[in-house]
Amino acid sequence: AAAATSVAELRAAVEAFEGCALKATARNTVFSDGVETAPVLLIGEAPGKDEDQQGKPFVGRSGQLLDLMLAQIGLSRRTNVLISNTIYWRPPGNRDPTPGETLACLPFAERLVALVQPKLLILTGKASAHTMLRREDGVLKLRGRRMRYEREGLAINTMVMLHPAYLLRQPQQKRLAWADLLSAESWLDEMGVARAPLP
Ligand code: URA
């Protein structure tokens, strides 16, 4: 991971990596989708069935909800967002990744942040927040707050959001997700990040 000097090199390194056992049961490596120089980097958890089939993150039902949510604040993987995960291979039956599997993939996720150096890092879901921020607080406590991802001299503005798969299971929590999107929107405005008008 450390040797990669671009997102393309990092993708090649992930594809060649044999240190995570999940690769053996997955159909595809799922690394990223979107704009590699984007001002917003979103990191989710692990690929599911649709992502494993297509080799792209967030393309199933939760991905469709994610795209709708991002569009509300002028963000899209076509113009200004890069999307990735903390795990690059689908865990069998969508089980939770083990701590060992998570640790094996972490250097790649950290390198991605260092290469992209986004204006805003969005972490969706508990596993992503805990892994990237190295904290154990509940996601309902972490969400929507202005936080910093600090690693090796980097300090990246970061916001935790509720995972779209959680919102599909708990639709009454969508009002919290809406509040978080508005918080992210005002932070992006303060940072002068260009966003597209709603289609
Ligand atoms: N959930 C995630 O966290 N990531 C994906 O890529 C798909 C669903």
Describe the 3D structure.
- The protein is globular.
- The termini are far apart.
- Strand 5 and strand 6 form a beta hairpin.
- The chain contains 8 helices and 6 strands; from the N terminus they run αββααβαβααββαα.
- The chain is of the alpha/beta class.
- Helix content is 41%, strand content 16%.
- The model has no long low-confidence stretch (mean pLDDT 96).
- The chain has helices at residues 7-16, 49-54, 61-72, 99-116, 126-133, 139-142, 164-169, 174-191; strands at residues 32-34, 40-44, 81-85, 120-124, 147-151, 154-161.
- The chain has a 6-stranded mixed β-sheet with strand order 1-3-2-4-6-5, sandwiched between helices.
- Uracil binds next to helix 3.
- Uracil (URA) binds at residues 44-48, 51, 57-58, 62-63, 85, 125, 165.
Helix residue percentage:
40-55%
Q: Return residue spans where pLDDT drops below 50 for at least 5 consecutive residues.
A: none
Radius of gyration: 16 Å
Tell me the fraction of residues in β-strands, as a range: 15-25%
The outline comes out as globular
N/C terminus separation: 37 Å
The profile of the biggest β sheet is: 6 strands, mixed
As laid out across the biggest beta sheet, the strand order is: 1-3-2-4-6-5
Oligomer: single chain
- Write the H/E string, N to C: HEEHHEHEHHEEHH
User: What average pLDDT do the residues reach?
Assistant: 96
Say which molecules are bound, naming each kind only once.
Answer: uracil
Structural class: alpha/beta
Helical stretch tally = 8
> How many strand segments?
6
